[in-house]
Write a structure and sequence with these properties.
Strand order of the largest sheet of chain A: 5-6-7-3-8-9
Number of helices of chain B: 12
Helix content of chain B: over 70%
CATH class of chain A: Alpha Beta
Strand content of chain A: 15-25%
Number of domains of chain A: 1
Structural class of chain B: mainly alpha
CATH class of chain B: Mainly Alpha
Radius of gyration of chain B: 18 Å
Order of helices and strands of chain A: EEEHEHEHHHEHEHEEH
Distance between the termini of chain B: 36 Å
CATH superfamily of chain B: ABC transporter involved in vitamin B12 uptake, BtuC
Strand content of chain B: under 5%
Largest interface: A-B, 32 and 25 residues
Oligomer: heterodimer
CATH architecture of chain A: 3-Layer(aba) Sandwich
Radius of gyration of chain A: 18 Å
Helix content of chain A: 25-40%
Number of domains of chain B: 1
Shape of chain A: globular
CATH architecture of chain B: Orthogonal Bundle
Order of helices and strands of chain B: HHHHHHHHHHHH
Number of strands of chain A: 9
Chain lengths: 252, 267
Amino acid sequence: MNMTADVVVIKDVWVHYDSIPVLEEINLVIKEHDFLGIIGVNGGGKSTLLKVILGLVKPSKGIVRVFGDTPQISRKYIGYVPQYSLFDLEFPVSVWEVVLMGRLGHTGLFKRYSEDDKKAALDALAKMDMLEYKDRQVGKLSGGQQHRVFIARALAANPKLLLLDEPAAGIDTIIQEEFYELLEKLKTKMAIVLVSHDISAVSVYVDKIACLNHRLYYHDSKELTAEDLEATYHCPVELIAHGVPHRVLKKH
Amino acid sequence: MMELLQYEFIRNAIMAGILASISCGIIGVYVVVKRIVFISGGIAHASFGGIGLGYYLGINPILGVLPFSIASALSMGWVSKRSRLPEDTAIGILWAMGMSIGIILVSLTPGYAPDLMTYLFGNILTVPFSDIVLMLVLDAIIILVVYSFYKEFLALCFDEEFATVRGVHAERLYLVLLCLIALTIVVLIRVVGIILVIALLTIPAAMSRQFTSNLKKMMMLSIMFGAVFSSGGIWLSYLFDVPSGATIVLVMSAVYLLYSLVKGISS
């Protein structure tokens, strides 16, 4: 297997917060065009795992390689959509200014945003169907619209890897469906990893599933064993025999 | 008010008021939107150590404040990000520490400290021309730095984590922002004094937020509010012969409260 062709390689990674282990012995390979869903209970380390890939959290042990390099070097290729609830909605900033932030790594210090940057930001807004809201203050939009803005911000960087933290939280089912269909389209251009505590919403759309509860259970496929789920959720979960539950149905 | 302008000290005072409005208009907006009012208050109060240092060394106290406020900004920023102490605890400790150093140094200085009150509560009517020159230089530095890093500062204030992912050195930039707050405090000390600085850093910016959701327009508006209120305060303090710093702060807070009341009733 060619290591450098892999998008993310995580080897025996441990993360401790104040000597309490949050991630234990994580091994994970994400390949080009993977569409991976990571599910698990809240507090199981899902956000931390994304932050390890982004280089925001340093592992106490283990190796992380993103596009064959350290996360700090490679994160310019990563688009990141953080947890929605963390924003200050009173903040005086327009949709346009937020999406341009996705281009920060592409302009130097002291420089204004270039025409290329503006074009990439416009493209990202158009892709998310949010062009008409360009000059609105972000806090004045609905939850679903804000969500699109933050995805547009991630896409403005033309990422090769897209990380989404609880993307379905706070948006209603119809918008969720559109959202997952958008991800279907994006996955031809980039690897996508999304984490969620909601197994049913995620499992229909993703190509591969992993379970995370301090330890990661992953078979490079969409199959999970009953033991995996039990280890993740600490209670028997009935679903495996007939595949995944279809609470979110795709249109045919 | 026109006949007042024939006095040089009034002209200096109004000039100082406008220069102060520029720095606090720009930096105050960051203080308000990034919600770092407490750390700004901490830097301001700890700067009293610099006043003490100035007295002790027998130099212009403002020159003592400059290095001292930068040092307190850097140490507060560093301790609040890196130490295991909760941020507000760390700031509280350094806040009191800086003031205590100032009081000890003043008491160690032989003789009586005549205009100590000026530095605590400001007296814009006694600003010498040399201090106006210093304010002008500091304003220029603040404008230059904010102009150069405008988009990075915006990203830092809105979403520090995302800024980091996009390659912004967020922690370093945060320290730069705290240093700009320190410089602003030096500019403001002559006008309202260490204790009242926080009013000028927050009220004009908070008021301008009511009228716009654009950071640049907020800065322009709060500079304007600051200039109008400080000139009004200077005039009232001359008229009624009351301390200028406190008058400026009272004018600002009264207008802000009135505005909030009217807005609250009409909505």
